[in-house]
Specification:
Length: 149
């Protein structure tokens, strides 16, 4: 899943950073370890490509707010618990929700569009529609949610 070779020689784009954050969150869930611990192990490693600052911010932000993010996902994923979601979809949605609610420099439509795009790249054919539906529901109430955070 690594995107390192695609970004060699140029700084990673925000899309690359998001994709890498999804990959790290996915790996942490699969290995049943803390994502920030996994991230810190990778940041100092000479065996992997450098990790972009935005990737670090996303992984740390998702981890810090994961309980709240997962509550929101369970409430708005109509018929799905986070544990039942495909792990890649859960990681994509967690990054998307984090950007919707806590990344002030990312417009809501961009957060949703980027998450859908990453779901197209990394998950099943049904995932982009699922991700769009969940984030669309949250995006429609994002201002109210941000007001109580």
């Amino acid at each position: 899943m690594s995107t390192g070779s695609a970004t060699r020689g140029r700084p990673p784009s925000r899309r690359d950073a998001r994709r890498r954050a999804v990959e790290l969150l996915y790996e942490a869930r699969q290995r049943d370890i803390d994502a920030v611990t996994l991230l810190s192990d990778r940041v100092g490693s000479t065996y992997v490509d450098p990790i972009a600052d935005y990737t670090i911010a996303l992984v740390e932000g998702v981890t810090a707010h994961q309980a709240h993010i997962d509550e929101l996902l369970a409430e708005h994923a109509q018929g799905w618990t986070v544990d039942r979601m495909p792990p890649v979809d859960a990681a994509v949605l967690r990054v998307g929700v984090y950007e919707l609610l806590w990344a002030a420099d990312v417009p809501d439509p961009v957060a949703i569009d980027e998450a859908v795009g990453i779901a197209k790249e990394l998950s099943t054919d049904d995932s982009p529609r699922f991700v769009n539906g969940v984030l669309g529901r949250l995006g429609s109430i994002a201002d109210r949610l941000r007001a109580v955070l």
